[in-house]
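Support request, please re-run this one:
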Amino acid sequence: MRPLPFLLVLSLGALAAAPAAALDKVTLATNWKAEAEHGGFYQAIATGIYRRHGLDVTLRMGGPQVNNPQLMAAGQFDFNVGASSFAALNYVKAGVPVATVAAIFQKDPQVLIAHPGQGNDTLEALKGKPILIAPAARATFWNFLRIRYGYTDDQIRTYTFNMAPFLVDKKTIQEGYLTSEPYTLEKAGVKPVVHVLADHGFDSYSTTIECAWKLVATRPDLVQRFVDASIEGWYSYLYGDPAPANALIRRDNPEMTADLMAYGIAALRKHGVIDSGDALTLGIGAMTDARWKSFASAMIKAGVYPSTIDLSKAYTLRFVNKKVGMEIKTSHGGSPRSQRPRR
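Re-run finished. Output below.
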């Protein structure tokens, strides 16, 4: 074998000695305790997707006592999982410079739940009846129900996230989350009537990705890589093997049983919470000006926001609608991988 030229040997030695490119360290805060609804973010960590995009991501789990918007405004983390389109408009209303850069959930998983056989099989039928909702709901989806179905505030009863009142009284109607309360009730032996508000015109985005407008302006490359990697993580979680993410979820939140996570994933898939609407053609994370304007117009009509609210300060389409990660879905035949609950 002929010896390598001396200069080439030096060059190869220098390359071998050079450290790998440093990863950008970023922190993502979620809007609740670890659950299947955060699966794509955990999947991007567990399978190395973030690292392949040059990111070292730390995930900070949320909870009922955590004020993520306040912490993000204080620079405690780089990205936040937003709850809904309301959050983005609330930032604008309050003068907080935060941008929504992607919408992972095309459908808000908010539901109203009733007992079967009680004449509560439509949202129209619930008008005038007592409904248990959390205090925060008055400023969000309750406004949609007032506009669309004529619900009134005297129907409101306080929901404390305790299912006992519902279980003991078949007349009870309450709010819930598609992937949570229905599971709890089914385990208790009740097959509830579930009204998914998104299937009846409630067009709020959910599980959004938020960051400071300053980060958008100064590090757009970082924002793009984070959004792209998160989207790929969600395709992998939905259409590949979710086990890597689920293991991390259970590590962070031992209350997340395998059965509950399997139920959550199945509900996300069945109802097209993530991969539906604009996401089918533009990719997961999709947003459009038309939908933002539609949502804002309805909430302005409800008196939630002034007619002068500046939507351009709420979101940007710069980082989405690029069909990122759709090949992951195609490689799995466009169908979710069937999973048995892991115990």
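Residues 1-19, 339-343 have pLDDT under 50 and may be disordered. The chain has two domains: 24-107+204-331, 110-200.
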